[in-house]
Write a structure and sequence with these properties.
Layout: H1 5-24, H2 30-50, H3 58-74, H4 77-80, H5 87-93, H6 99-126
Helix pairs in contact: 1-2, 2-6, 3-6
């Protein structure tokens, strides 16, 4: 397995950014919206950093994964499974459904596709 250091570097920058947002930002734009956009890009960069196979549909898979988690929030899965006292699971799954979160995930997916298109065009121009 070969590590793609470019993606791993971006992953760590995003991880630090997300941690700072989670710990220190309590506003009505950055934490709820920018944080949700960045979390999809964060997962994408981690996967691209460690998996070398073609990942054409990875952004779509991440959108579906994150949307599924959001639907679990809608149905209050944490409470249905009696896991509300498990801080880790409760944090990962979350407890508050918001359709705007899914829109943020969609925006992140579009950003990733645009980013990859620009990267692809840049690689083609070099040759």
């Amino acid at each position: 397995m070969k590590i793609n250091m470019k993606y791993i570097f971006v992953f760590f920058i995003l991880l630090i950014t997300e941690t700072i947002i989670a710990l220190f930002v309590n506003d009505s734009i950055i934490r709820p919206y920018i944080g949700d956009v960045l979390v999809i890009i964060l997962m994408y960069t981690l996967i691209r950093g460690i998996i070398q196979k073609p990942t054409k549909f990875l952004p779509i898979y991440l959108l579906l994964f994150a949307s599924t988690i959001e639907v679990c929030q809608y149905f209050n899965l944490v409470n249905m499974l009696c896991l509300q006292d498990n801080k880790v699971i409760a944090t990962i799954i979350g407890s508050t459904f918001d359709i705007r979160d899914i829109l943020c995930y969609l925006v992140a997916t579009m950003i990733i596709f645009i980013w990859e298109k620009i990267e692809s065009d840049t690689r083609c121009e070099r040759f």
